[in-house]
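Throughout our pipeline, every protein is held as a single compact record rather than as scattered files. This encoding replaces a full spatial description with a residue-level series of whole-number codes. The remainder of this section carries one protein's record, kept here as part of the documentation.
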Amino acid sequence: HKRRVLTPMIIREILFYGLQSPQGEQLAAFVTRDRHHARIADVLRHIQTHFSEPLDISALADIASMSQSSLHQHFKAVTNASPLQYIKAIRLHRAQHLLSDSQLSVSEAAWQVGYQSLSQFSREYKRLFGDVPSRVVGSVLN
């Protein structure tokens, strides 16, 4: 019983002295960075699972327990993309996979990955892949 009570106190004391040391600033940055990375990992898992659903930054910030600006900053540091850019890329890569591996039409693939507008989907698809999505369907069927 004593060990269960004392262990957390000893750990806190070690951390306290570590943070007070000359390397304390580096230790604090490391601990904070890891905590932020874990929160961003939670957001990434959520995006991977729910990419075809409407996703907004405020909901993602809530998942990370961060403000929207903090989420944007830490997300970009981890992924090198903003949350919206990342969501678009996930959706477009999944659509490319659907178009090349199935008999889905462009509009069906766009809808399945969460796009509400076919013209927006086609525009963003061409911007990312350099070609129109209908050409992927055509190359599979021929």
